[in-house]
Amino acid sequence: MRYRVLILWLVGSLVACAGGSPKTAYYTLSSTEVAKPVANKQHIKSVGISRVQIPDLLKRSQMVLRKQGYQVDVSDTYQWGGDLRDELTNALVQQLQVRLPATRIQTAPWELEQTPQYEFSLQVSQFDGALNDKAYLKGRWQLLRGASDKLVEAGTVDLVRKVEGDTVGDIVKAQNALIGQLVDLWVSALPKP
Q1: Which candidate, 64, 68, 99, 171, has a CA 20 to 30 Å from the CA of 163?
Q2: Are 78 and 130 in contact (CB under 8 A)?
């Protein structure tokens, strides 16, 4: 009799745990904000994005949420819909294409004869956020002349945006806006005619 009660208790506990588990939510970076095309950059025929690098902390499907100061939470409940490096690259391409509609935007690798006129690279050091606080995009970037790999410009990015809300979706929205700010910086770095 004791064993039956114990087994029923164990089964009931397992069912309660399974029913109480939060459902995993998946997020993606996308260009939801519409930017204006840049008229004075029509002389640029092609731009490439290569070597987008992210730190080991972000090389996972789980989202990294900042808790406070130096503490982060790697969430099992909130995850990226795809590989974060690919998500970042795709968001950069989308936002560049909106701003430079007459320019071919491509990602590495490309065929030698398809080498873009200019090429951006990005090394991310921080890409996270906290609920009801801020989202961060930090790192370094370079702009190279495509055929020669000659450095045109380089810089650091230290972007912070207020998270307007208390959901993880609000953090992702702020992160999308940070990507837009980075793309605006990149477009302004492209040579003028």
Answers
A1: 99
A2: no
Q: Which CATH class is domain 28-189?
A: alpha beta
Q: Is 153 helix (H, G, I), strand (E, B) or coil?
A: strand
Contact 137, 91 (CB under 8 A): no
Instruction: Write the pLDDT tens digit of every residue in 121-154.
Output: 999 999 999 999 999 999 999 999 988 889 999 9
**From CA 133, how far away is CA 141, in angstroms rounded?**
26
Per the structure block, which two tokens stand in for 70? Answer: 């130096």
Question: Structure tokens of 190?
Answer: 């492209």
The string of pLDDT tens digits covering residues 23-72 is 999 999 976 566 667 667 778 999 999 989 999 999 999 999 988 778 89
Calpha distance 103→70 (Å, rounded): 41
How far apart, in whole angstroms, are the C-alpha atoms of residue 21 and residue 135? 27
- Cα 93 to Cα 100: distance, rounded to the nearest angstrom: 10
Give exposure, 81-117, as e/b (b: 16+ Cβ within 10 Å). eeebbebbbbbbbbbbbbbbeebebbeeeeeeeebbb
Domain-wise residue ranges, the chain: 28-189
Cα distance from N-terminal residue to C-terminal residue, the chain: 87
